[in-house]
Design goal:
CATH architecture of the largest domain: Alpha Horseshoe
CATH class of the largest domain: Mainly Alpha
Strand order of the largest sheet: 2-1-3
Order of helices and strands: HHEEHEHHHHH
Largest sheet: 3 strands, antiparallel
Number of strands: 3
Number of domains: 3
Radius of gyration: 26 Å
Length: 240
C-alpha cells in the first residue's frame, strides 16, 4: 500500500527536518517554521505526483465498456481487460471487440492479478473518489450476492427468488441469464414461494429459459420485476 506522509500529522524535530529536506535536495537553512513550510510544500507536490501516477495506472484497467474499474476482470480475445458481466452481455449480442471493432470469439480468462492490483490501488487512497466509490459498491454487491447464494443453497426461498431476479435482469454484476433465473424461480416455486411461482408460471407460458409448458403456466402481475426492491442493504441485512 502506498502511504504519503505529511508533517500535518507528525512533529519532526529540526534535525529530522534537515534530513528530510536534504534528501530532497532542498535548502536546510532557516527557522523550524520555515523548514516545516518548505517540507510541507514538497510533500504536497509529491502527493500530487503520486496521485497522478496512481490514477494513470488505474485508468489502464478501466473496462472499455463500463469505463469503471472492474470487480471481476477478465481477459478477452482482443487482449483487453473487461468487467465480466459487461463483456459477456456484449458478446451475447455481437461477436466483435468493443475496443477495435474486429471480429472476436467468446473466450474469457479470469484475471485475478488485475483484481489484486486494482484492490491495492484503491486501498492506497490515491485513486479518484468516483472510481473508488463505484468499485467498492460492486465489491459490496459481490459479497452480498455470495451471502444470498449461501442462503439459497440452504433452502431459503426468498434468497432463491432474489437470485432469480438478479439473473433475470443482469443485476449486481451479473450478466442476464434467463436459464439460471428459471432454475432459481423453479426451485423457489417447488418450496411454495408465491412471487417466484408467478414468474415461473410466466416462463412456462412463454418458454423463457427453457421449454414452454402452457398447461402448467400462469401469470400474476404483482411479482417484483427487479431485485433492487428486495436486495439486502448490508451483509447482515435480511430479505423482505
Amino acid at each position: 500500500m502506498i502511504r504519503i506522509r505529511t508533517i500535518a500529522n507528525t512533529m519532526p524535530t529540526v534535525d529530522e527536518l534537515h534530513t528530510m529536506l536534504g534528501k530532497r535536495g532542498l535548502p536546510t537553512d532557516g527557522r523550524k517554521a520555515e523548514l516545516e513550510q518548505r517540507l510541507n510544500k514538497a510533500e504536497r507536490r509529491e502527493n500530487k505526483r503520486a496521485r497522478t501516477t496512481v490514477n494513470s495506472v488505474a485508468d489502464e484497467w478501466l473496462c472499455p465498456i463500463t469505463r469503471e474499474l472492474p470487480a471481476d476482470p477478465v481477459l478477452a480475445e482482443d487482449r483487453k481487460i473487461y468487467e465480466r458481466a459487461a463483456i459477456t452481455k456484449w458478446l451475447g449480442e455481437k461477436r466483435s471487440s468493443p475496443t477495435t471493432g474486429a471480429a472476436m470469439g467468446t473466450r474469457l480468462v479470469s484475471a485475478p492479478q488485475v483484481r489484486n492490483t486494482i484492490e491495492k490501488l484503491v486501498e492506497s487512497g490515491l485513486v479518484d473518489a468516483d472510481k473508488t466509490a463505484a468499485w467498492k459498491k460492486k465489491i459490496e454487491d459481490e459479497q452480498l450476492l455470495k451471502k444470498v447464494r449461501r442462503e439459497a443453497d440452504q433452502g431459503d426461498t426468498k434468497a432463491m427468488h432474489i437470485l432469480g431476479l438478479v439473473h433475470k435482469n443482469g443485476e449486481k454484476g451479473l450478466a442476464p441469464d434467463v436459464k439460471q433465473a428459471r432454475d432459481w424461480f423453479e426451485r423457489a416455486t417447488e418450496l411454495g414461494h408465491v412471487a417466484a411461482m408467478a414468474i415461473f408460471g410466466q416462463y412456462l407460458l412463454q418458454g423463457v429459459g427453457g421449454p414452454a409448458v402452457p398447461a402448467l403456466g400462469s401469470s400474476t402481475p404483482d411479482a417484483p420485476r427487479s431485485a433492487a426492491r428486495i436486495w439486502p442493504r448490508t451483509c447482515s441485512g435480511r430479505h423482505s
